[in-house]
Amino acid sequence: MKSSLNPAEIRQLCRTGKLVTPTPGLASGYVQANLVILPKLLAFDFLLFCQRNPKPCPVLDVTEVGNPEPKIIASGADVRTDLPRYRIFRNGNLGEEVTEITEFWRDDLVAFLIGCSFSFEAAMLRVGLPVRHIEEGKNVPMYKTNIPCLSAGVFSGNLVVSMRPLSMNQAIQAVQITGRYAKAHGSPIQIGDPAAIGIKEIDSPDFGDSVTINEGELPVFWACGVTTQLAILEAKPELAITHAPGHMFVSDLKDDCLGF
Amino acid sequence: MKSSLNPAEIRQLCRTGKLVTPTPGLASGYVQANLVILPKLLAFDFLLFCQRNPKPCPVLDVTEVGNPEPKIIASGADVRTDLPRYRIFRNGNLGEEVTEITEFWRDDLVAFLIGCSFSFEAAMLRVGLPVRHIEEGKNVPMYKTNIPCLSAGVFSGNLVVSMRPLSMNQAIQAVQITGRYAKAHGSPIQIGDPAAIGIKEIDSPDFGDSVTINEGELPVFWACGVTTQLAILEAKPELAITHAPGHMFVSDLKDDCLGF
Questions:
Q1: Of A28, A145, A225, B165, which one is least surrounded by beta carbons within 10 A?
Q2: Contact yes or no for A40 and B40 at CB 8 A
């Protein structure tokens, strides 16, 4: 897939079934987003959960009830067809994985588009900070913590974090750089002490892959969008639709606009 | 009223009926908040309106349905009694002004606490920037603009702005300073060109008082919380309760935490 394609071209490829693979590296400089679709009945609780937990759940756009167009971040787009791959959950159980969701769409559904770490990783790379899982061609390591999110209605659960190893000097620079991307998880939540947030084995992440931590490096932890997915699984809504991991919505928003 | 009282002491004075006057200048360094109370039926639309228009409507806290405690910004507080003065609106019409709302409270009400400009004005004063309406002992001048907010369900309307005159050098510094207070309206939305945002007569504000603009100064415009109130009036909910102008909720949050 050419990385020079613009977001509208990528969405068009998804819509016509020509792109069904993960999106990292595509449309460099543009914001990619997590997708969560829920019935209107749960929309207030979920929006409030996001509002109360902005680091793991930075809301970029919310569609009108029954309308699949995320007007604010991608005018003309359609969340039913414009992602490469989706997951269908019923009562908290994973059902089928599909490449479009037109047949599952209903008039009472609301789609939430939520910022993701690709935006701040690109910013780290631009200033020369290492992003280990990219260097090693792996998925980012993610861990369940003992930090409870602020609950909202039916949604609750502990914070999930992603980890990138850095020296202390690099970690301080990363606080400054990633702190500018408030809508993409923002600054780290912990530097150097996994036990303090309930992580027992740094080499055994709960999701994703283990990465190398070199001599002199500390594990640095950021709030992670998977937090949202766990909260949804625990709430067991009769229907929830999300992107498949790594198969994100590519928006028209520029990464560098996420701090304003 | 002693400005040395802490937020809990001020709320206690409100609760016992001993403070019924405006709150500017009280509990210096602590965030004061606009209050909007609406029935749950409208809560999703209103939260989404705020989410889509974060500059005029920065959400600091939302209470659980039927629960009057804003746990996040003031544990133990009660929005029914802890402000000095309230306004009751029915179907978009202003009814009585009261000093507590216990008798109006219902199990289906949700309270929204929304950031206000006091936080960034204090920051401007700390770096020596002038805040003209404070110098002149007036209310800040506010204007309706021709800029439509992003609508959400029943809530829509144009942006309302507040104005503070500054030299261009000062305005640039004010962009940097107030931009740090994203949860208190953030950076200005216009510098020096009222006509560009639909303001015809700078000396005739739609709300508040006219202030002096000195030779060499430009009018600088910030998004204003009154935007929210106009959107509510236009939506004509069967019941809405707000703070009375200037009679804010004094929270336990520090002004300097509003940028994170």
A1: A28
A2: no
For residue B182, the domain's CATH number is: 3.30.2040.10
Asked whether the predicted pLDDT for residue A2 surpasses 60, the reply is no
Residues A73 and A147 in one domain: no
Cα B242 to Cα B88: distance, rounded to the nearest angstrom = 7
A201 shares its domain with A244:
no
Q: Is residue B2 part of a domain?
A: no
- Burial (CB < 10 A; 0-12, 13-18, 19+), residue A93, is exposed
Same-domain status, A93 and A150: no
Nearest chain B Cα to A183, which residue?
Answer: B260
Domain that holds residue A75: 7-116+236-257
My answer on whether A105 and A153 are in the same domain is no
| pLDDT > 90 in chain A, percent | 89
Provide, as residue numbers in chain B, all residues whose Cβ is less than 8 Å from the Cβ of A59.
Answer: 51
Task: Name the domain count of chain B.
Answer: 2
Residues in chain A with CB shorter than 8 Å from the CB of B48 are 47, 62
Question: Measured between CB atoms, which of B47, B65, B260 is closest to A51?
Answer: B47
Q: Which of B51, B182, B260 sits opposite A47 (nearest CB)?
A: B51
The average confidence (pLDDT) of chain A is 94
C-alpha torsion sign, points B90, B58, A31, A35: negative
The residue of chain B with its CA nearest to that of A61 is: B52
**Residue in B48, B64, B260 nearest the CB of A47:** B48
Are A42 and A236 spatial neighbours (Cβ–Cβ below 8 Å)?
Answer: no
ipTM rounded to 2 decimals = 0.75
Which residues have a Cβ under 8 Å from the Cβ of B15 and sit 6 or more positions away? B78, B81, B82, B100
Tell me: the pLDDT tens digits for A55-80? 999 999 999 999 999 999 999 999 99
Closest residue in A to B152 (Cα–Cα)? A64
pLDDT tens column, A230-251: 999 999 999 999 999 889 999 9
Give the amino acid at A112. F
Provide, as residue numbers in chain A, all residues whose Cβ is less than 8 Å from the Cβ of B44: 40, 43-44, 47
Residue A108 binned pLDDT confidence (cut-offs 50, 70, 90): very high
Minimal CA separation from B43 to chain A, in Å: 7
Which distant-in-sequence residues (6+ apart) come within 8 Å of A231 by Cβ? A49, A149, A155, A156, A157
For testing the chain A interface, which of B42, B45, B48, B72 should be mutated: the one with the most A CBs within 10 Å?
A: B48
Of the pLDDT bands very low, low, confident and very high (cuts 50, 70, 90), residue B65 is: very high
- pTM: predicted TM-score of the whole model, two decimal places: 0.86
**Max Cα-Cα span within chain B:** 54
In this structure, the answer to whether residues A136 and A100 fall within a common structural domain is: no
Q: Which helix (H) or strand (E) holds B122?
A: helix B118-126
What pLDDT, on a 0 to 100 scale, did the predictor assign at position A256?
Answer: 83
